[in-house]
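User: Predict the complex with phosphoenolpyruvate.
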Amino acid sequence: MIVVMKTDSSQNQLDHIINKLESANLGVHLSKGVQRTIIGVIGERKDKETMKMKIEAMNGVEKVVSILDSYKLVGKEFKPEKSVIDIGGVKIGGEEVVVMAGPCSVENEKQIVKTADAVKKAGAKILRGGAYKPRTSPYSFQGLGEEGLKLMALAKQKTGLKIVTELIDKEYLEIVCNYADIIQIGSRNMHNYSLLKALGNIDKPVLLKRGFASTIKEWLLAAEYVMKEGNHQVILCERGIRTFGEKTRNTLDLSSVPLIQELSHLPIVVDPSHGTGNWRLVSPMARAAVASGADGLMVEVHPQPEDALSDGQQSLTFDNFNKMMSEIVKIAEVLGKKVYSPGVAV
Ligand code: PEP
Ligand code: MN
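Assistant: Here is the predicted structure with phosphoenolpyruvate placed in the model:
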């Protein structure tokens, strides 16, 4: 259930209700909005209805809402205002469409530093790059591991870009946390509930990619796993789902952007690279993603896509990335949003 406090309720009244709930062994998650405070109540009790009536009768309470579906924390009932995730000053979920760009995998110093430099100049705020890669084939390049993270840190130091990188196993949680500003959970791990729970106990934003065969509900519930443990800094990432189409790697489900925004307060970004698997389709789908209202983009960029150790076929060259950035600036403007692009006033 969710307890909606009156706009003029006092801290005392709030404390009183929290005490009541906690002494009934119920968990409490607070959402303090500009207008009002909402308490998300976690846990099950047999005497739910009695409890609801008791809370409803308490001072400062406007109403108590039973949540029928299971979106307790990701849902808008709990937090009507949009969540803005602040990554050291880079805000995802606000009026800026934030671009994350970089290679699929970190390969060597020259590659990552050159790419970081180029994407920064074009307006990206966050550098992507995999060090631990979840490859379909065990014979494919598996990533440089910690060496790759060190190279990302070097590129960050040189450019000031924030870093997003994937965590594939709990085993690497600490080490990835030491380097990453955002922890990426890949499509293959969206259903890895013990990993999601572990992320719920850290204080770092999580970029949760949609499972390639998951419904919107399963995806939101995966986010709920992270939030339930206490970490509310979740960014969703649409990266395409598997369908019968054979011309693209995945089918990029852009309807998920407005759908998620209707159901949840969490920001959503779109990855048109994995969503299509074809660099020729990346810019058009990036434009469409911005038009659909996405809060950001994640795009693969490589200095020489033809030589990339992974996903070269869907990686943009620096020139193509520059072009994409100048196009999305215009699309964002239509929606009253902004894309940071050096040389373009924001
Ligand atoms: C990636 O971003 O490099 C990646 C592996 O993506 P996904 O998990 O969406 O396949
Ligand atoms: Mn990739």
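The mean pLDDT is 95.
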